[in-house]
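Budget justification note: compute hours in this period were largely spent on complex prediction jobs such as the one shown. Inputs:
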Amino acid sequence: MEEDNKINNEVVSEYTLRGILKEVLSYKAGVASLIILLFFLGITIYTVVAFPYSEAIREWNSSSAHLKKPRNAVPVWWGLFSGKNLPRNIDVTFNSNESNPIHKEFSFTYDDFPTEINIFFKAKYSGDPPIVKIYWEKPDGERMLLEEHTIRSEEDTLYLSNNFSLENRLSTDIASKIGKPIDFSITVPRALFMKYSDKLEVLKGDYKITLDTKFANKNDSLSGELVIYGKLYGIAGTDHLRRPIQIALLWGTPLDLSFGLGASLSITFLELIIASISGWFGGITDSIIQRLTEIYMVLPFLPIMIMISLFYKLSIWSLLFVVIILSIFGSGIKTTRAMVLQVKNLPYIEAAQAYGASNWRIIFLYIIPKILPPVIPNLVASVPVYVFLEAILALFGVLDPTQPTWGRVLEDAFQNGALYKGYVYWVIIPSALLILTAISFSLLGFVLDRIVNPKLKEL
Amino acid sequence: MKFIIKRVLTLFLTVLIAVYLTIVIANAGGYVDKIAENEIRTNIVMAMKDNPNFRNLSTEEQKRFLEDRVQHELKKRGLDMPFPIRSLYHLKNAMVLNLGRAMYMTSDSGSTLVKSIILERLPVTVLLFTTATVINFLLTLFLGLRLSRRYGSFWDKLVISLSPSSVIPGWFYGIFLIMIFYSWFHILPSGGLVDYPPPSGTISYFLSVLKHMVLPLTSWIIASLFLGIYQNRTFFLIYSTEDYVEVAKAKGLSPRQIEYRYILRPSLPPIITSFALSVISSWTGAIVTEFIFNWPGLGQTMSQAISYFDAPVIVGVTVIYAYLLTITILILDIVYAIIDPRMRIQG
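Corresponding output:
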């Protein structure tokens, strides 16, 4: 009696979630895939809880939210591999209410030059605008006048690094100071932070900036921020529009995975139902469904997908619907139907017919549960196909451009020549996420396949 | 022969329905109607330009006359009918590859006919992807056969553990290959068909094309190699345990004879089926791969048409793809009939 129970338990355990999990964990590949999936689950939960979607969309599509972030900066951890201490952003705030002229000091100890230097002014004035003189003092005590700037509006930005007359003035000045021919060009950030030698080197130490403002009225004031743009930002860097790529990667995780899971789940189940109907009813129903699958075989899936998403401007969720419609009569029907034909003649189905079960009852309660286990591995393994489909559609630029997804990041990188200009991080990080997804689902599918088809274990 | 005729007929019907579906989908946005109307308008404008009688008319009158003629022509061709009837006209046009004129794109020879744009690009696509699939087929077949003999060896285990790499599509490997061999080592071109300017001699032109094919081919082969070998090896293992193989062994046939006569021959049909599926998926995969590698074939035409929003070209490429898939299936059916005698009898 006890022994009987034990055997029963073992057989049943295969079908409980816990039993399957235990079996999956007995494979190394299973452990690896579950670890990766847990990692994605963690990202998803973190993103959904800590970073609301509406906020992410707004930040991703806003052109003004990222003005103070560096353009095309590499991730902070990426910088460690360069062997150099790459500059980070330096923000220096100032306010004329504290003192006038304003003196601000900051230290610069990085091995590389900053990318840009901007000053964001906020002025309050009535009548004539304030005029500000900007002085720069290097650690070796050299002091120079950079610019005499008349404030143009209450919010004004001075793009020091885009100022060509300043660049020309500084470079002729520096060329005469060095006195030797040099083989590099002098930009404003280089001029302000370099040692005067024929080799391009950063002068480390404490820098000083002085803002001497002439106000027309006593009550006028000037405040603002000096931003010295670095080359490092966040965990995934920034793109050509200074947007932190991590926004798209974080929200891309739930969006891409739910697109992939949604597509493969619904397509597999619909195919299962259609194949069961085809196999069970036979006759005309069967041949219509079979002819439909043949037509679907010559329907060019990707061109039609591209055509639809381009002509009708669909969001990712309507597109998911189109993907499902265009795939439900796919090649999976043929193999599933073959299984249905085998199951159809089993005694328990005859028994069900004998007690008067309806056709639909037999299909949904007797046939589908029976052929479900062998289909599950395919379901899991086909998730990456649809995740990559999202990336393909994004690459062609036919997806809703406001939605931050992994494919979108790849498309931006591609359009802006990241492959050729050496912005490797911009391609590698989203690609790594795609590869991790692909590998984890396919390994899990592989393991599940071995569990439900024990014959495979021998080969 | 009877089998082939029957297959051609069914496939013709299938492609007819597939193309019709494409038209219905495209025309829900009115694009196909617009393509037909543009075609008519261009023809009338051309005719009016050639006819000296119209030069004396004022622009106002010319415009009115043009509109009249366009409406008249639309009526004559039945394009003022409700959509179900109108769509048959579109269907006939698409089936005979009368795909209208492109809105912005031109072929290299300067023609704006969608048909000539597509026919010019098609051979380039066929060149790359037929080469890729044939190399793949042969590689996976022979490596699979070799591996099935060394079942359980180090190489066998290596291939099994590398087989999940095939979930990553070929174009995705392409991105990495470009980064490694173009951006990093600078030894292979990042894309295109030939060097610019194209070399003048035939041999150097051929070599230049070959050089440009290396990366796209490699990306496709990496993407399906390990899974392909693994699948074929499994097939061969299954067939090598059959009784007739044991008998052949007992008869004292050489391993080579056993392999080719008793293992390869019966396992070919399922292998050909999976080959067929890979060819079909290669046609779609081609679109992305050509986009990544800037390969001037059909797929790149599609991506250019998308960026110009050139509706006639997009519909045209889709129709051509339906044809390509049908022809692929037909060829594989015939191959199937040759290698599997049962099919001929059934047909």
